[in-house]
Design brief:
Length: 297
């Protein structure tokens, strides 16, 4: 059986969850994915290290996904890419009854002039953020991001107000849920309130992430810094990616898409580091979706 090279055929576009479901259904293995990546010149070096914390993160992805499904299930859930990609894979497979989209939401993209023009209108319409829905319905939306302040929420609300002269934020139709919320600056609550619920102890068992941040983490419930919650959010942000962050919009075959930058910005916060490793990203997606399939009733 030939390798699933279609996973890497579009270098600046992550495969849809449904596409990876097809790869799994066809019986492809992780070895096949590695072979497919090598066809496009990608290296398998560093894959094991890049995925070192994934086994410990997976149970928390499940927990976050299940908690999210019970919070405003009638809302359209816009899960921010790239940081929320694996959460989206699990959520869309295990909770297909809750409408959700994986929405590119890099800050450079949201601050680009493209977003407040015609390309921006067409792009947002892909995520149910079209003029009819915004101006003539009472549809509510929940943005889902890893952390820590929810800047994505602020920028997207501003873009919608510029384009449609309607404030979803002030009308209470747009909110945000975070994996880890900074107690001083967050624009919304955590998906799971670890201030009132016990923090899962294995959230501290993320040695690769802790090493990247240069230290150990204390068991503190009420602070973003040095907390298992922050470490979990950071682990999600440091998972391997298919491509760099988004920096604008392009039209491709009549479809408006987010454009991935050719290289990482020269100044990049560690928690949002580049971490581009297409083979590792594909294997992470493969494992998360396999795990989600096992969770289905």
């Amino acid at each position: 059986m030939p390798a699933p090279t279609e996973l890497f055929a579009r270098p600046f576009e992550r495969p849809e969850t449904t596409q990876m479901l097809g790869v799994i259904a066809a019986g492809y293995t992780e070895a096949d994915i590695i072979e497919a990546g090598r066809v496009f010149g990608h290296s398998a070096d560093g894959v094991d290290e890049a995925l070192g914390d994934l086994p410990a993160v997976l149970p928390h992805i499940h927990q976050l996904s299940d908690a999210l499904s019970t919070q405003n299930p009638d809302n359209v859930h816009l899960i921010a890419a790239r940081d929320g990609e694996l959460l989206y894979d699990d959520f869309s497979v295990t909770h297909p009854d809750v409408k959700s989209h994986l929405m590119p939401a890099s800050i450079d993209l949201l601050l680009s002039d493209d977003m407040t023009g015609e390309l921006g209108r067409r792009f947002l319409a892909r995520f149910d953020l079209d003029a009819t829905t915004i101006k003539k319905t009472d549809r509510h939306f929940t943005i889902v991001d890893t952390g820590f302040s929810g800047t994505v929420f602020v920028h997207l609300a501003d873009i919608i107000e510029v384009l449609y002269r309607t404030s979803l934020r002030r009308s209470g139709r747009l909110d945000i849920k975070l994996v880890c919320a900074d107690i001083h600056t967050a624009n919304g609550p955590q998906i799971i309130d670890y201030a009132t619920e016990e923090v899962p102890r294995d959230a501290v068992l993320l040695p690769h992430t802790a090493a990247r941040l240069g230290g150990s983490f204390a068991h503190e419930k009420h602070s973003r810094r040095n907390s298992p919650t922050m470490l979990l959010a950071t682990a999600l942000q440091l998972m391997p990616r298919y491509h760099e962050a988004f920096d604008g919009l392009v039209e491709d075959g009549g479809k408006v898409m987010a454009h991935a930058a050719d290289s990482a910005p020269t100044e990049f916060m560690l928690c949002n580091a580049s971490n581009v490793n297409p083979i590792a990203a594909a294997i992470a997606q493969y494992r998360v979706i396999q795990s989600a399939l096992r969770r289905q009733p």
